[in-house]
Write a structure and sequence with these properties.
Blueprint (H helix, E strand, L loop, with lengths): L1 E7 L12 E2 L5 E5 L4 E6 L5 E3 L6 E3 L4 E4 L3 E10 L8 E9 L2 E9 L5 E9 L1 E9 L4 E9 L2 E7 L5 E7 L8 E7 L6 E11 L11
Antiparallel strand pairs: 1-3, 2-7, 3-4, 4-17, 5-6, 7-16, 8-13, 8-17, 9-10, 9-16, 10-11, 11-12, 13-14, 14-15
Length: 209
């Protein structure tokens, strides 16, 4: 059964997650309760970016999620269903305000390659490519460990590759969730399934667990 399929302002109740809210304006979302699958469709030209080369800020994308607890992990398998365009992505996101946010992306590169990309923003964005993804999907995971955050990716949802460890330089509450971006395309349809949320982050960030 689809909830909110193709309609704005309808926020689904996703199994296993706290109540969800948008970071800004409502986006386009559909939820299949039987499959526990969340699908977000990005509008044309939306993204988050605080360009380190003085290219200005862009925060037209909106993420769907919840206030991050002091300790947790959130993971999902991510696939882009629409024809891919440069920098489109399905994203796990963190958002405090326009100067403090981060995102872990299954992104399409200018060289027409799918890859894991992470962006950490404390005033300006630190943009880092991780690795190529040969298949149609990848698993992404964001965790909170005390004052720090960790990003991981996985080919199978069992063995996790460390992407980065960082802090956001703010004491504001942080919104964690899901996002679709299409900075150079007409849309990006990002599907998130096998969604898992735990109050316990990994005990070791670098041993594959």
């Amino acid at each position: 059964m689809l909830s909110g399929a193709g309609r704005r302002n309808v926020i689904p109740e996703v199994t296993g997650l706290p109540a969800l809210a948008w970071t800004s304006s409502p986006g386009r979302v559909a939820y299949d309760a039987a499959e526990n699958t969340l699908t977000l469709t990005a509008a044309p030209g939306v993204d988050w970016s605080n360009d380190s080369l003085w290219g200005g800020q862009q925060h037209r994308a909106s993420a769907l999620g919840f206030t991050a607890p002091p300790s947790f992990s959130l993971s999902a398998r991510v696939m882009v269903l629409s024809p891919r365009t440069t920098f489109d992505a399905g994203v796990l996101s963190l958002w405090a305000d326009t100067d403090h946010w981060a995102k872990l992306c299954f992104e399409y590169s200018p060289h027409e390659e799918a890859m894991v990309v992470s962006v950490v923003t404390n005033t300006y964005s630190d943009d880092s490519n991780a690795h190529l993804v040969p298949g149609p999907w990848t698993y992404l995971r964001v965790s909170r460990i005390g004052p720090a955050w960790a990003f991981h990716s996985s080919a199978n949802g069992l063995y996790w590759c460390f992407v980065r460890l960082f802090r956001l330089h703010t004491h504001k509450p942080v919104h964690v969730g899901f996002m679709s971006q299409a900075p150079m395309g007409e849309r990006c349809v990002a599907r998130f399934d096998r969604i898992e949320f735990s109050a316990r982050p990994p005990a070791d960030l670098r041993d594959g667990s």
